[in-house]
């Protein structure tokens, strides 16, 4: 049985919600006030015992408990289902996805099989994540960060006669979680070009991120500082208006 013993009355209610009402394990979890993992574990136990609601409903508590009891050593011999570490790592980049949620889904996906407890699940994932290269360890949640900078090279904008009217600077914005990229051409790299590029990017993405991370541009920074650069008034008014925040990259640390 799971670590926190459930009363047979509650277990019957869990099975009724599953078999009679047809609720999902997540819906049963909310209705019964227990974890999805516990719902999955008991549902798997009942399935392994070839039970259905017609056979469970008339049983007394001790009779139901006896039918759900595993034979000796049955739960210790089988190997646990291994995690899909890359999938867990990728899913954690999505908004509102937690290890708790992914563990519950892992347990539900392997009904009747031996799975890891939540603490083991977390520790194994963290051990795996530690093996990643340093360049791969930075994680971003969906909608969290928008990185912005100007490309190093300008591009020619032609006039109607085939000549070069001016050389455009290329503003580039990238969402940290998905690498979804926005780009536009500007006349220069002044304050209005930075602000215009950021506004264009947010309109393109359909919303403002939690944090804007530009390179450390003089056009936006009033007080250059290696650790706490101060925003200029225009940049501060901009982030206030869009209810976001700006954290410029450290100088020479883009």
What report would you give on this structure?
The chain has 254 residues and is α+β, with helices and mostly antiparallel strands. It contains 11 helices and 7 strands. The chain folds into 3 domains: 8-68; 85-131, no CATH class; 145-246, 2-Layer Sandwich (Nucleotidyltransferase, domain 5). The two termini are 52 Å apart. The strands form 2 sheets. Strands 1, 2, 3, 4 and 5 form a 5-stranded mixed sheet that branches. Strands 6-7 form a two-stranded antiparallel sheet. A hairpin with a 5-residue loop joins strand 3 (164-175) and strand 4. The protein is elongated.
Q: Round the Cα radius of gyration to an integer and report it.
A: 28 Å
Question: What string, H for helix and E for strand, traces the elements in order?
Answer: HHHHHHHHHEEEEHEEEH
- State which percent range the strand residues make up: 5-15%
**Helix share bin:** 40-55%
pLDDT averaged over residues: 81
- Global outline: elongated
Look up the CATH topology of the largest domain.
Nucleotidyltransferase, domain 5
Task: Sum this structure up briefly.
InterPro entries: HTH_IS408/IS1162_type, Integrase_cat-core, RNA_pol_sigma_r3/r4-like, WH-like_DNA-bd_sf. The chain is an alpha+beta fold.
Topology, pairings included?
Layout: H1 8-19, H2 25-32, H3 36-48, H4 53-56, H5 61-68, H6 74-77, H7 85-91, H8 99-109, H9 118-130, E1 145-150, E2 155-158, E3 164-175, E4 181-186, H10 191-205, E5 211-214, E6 221-223, E7 230-231, H11 233-241
Parallel strand pairs: 1-5
Antiparallel strand pairs: 1-3, 2-3, 3-4, 6-7
Helix pairs in contact: 1-2, 1-3, 2-3, 3-8
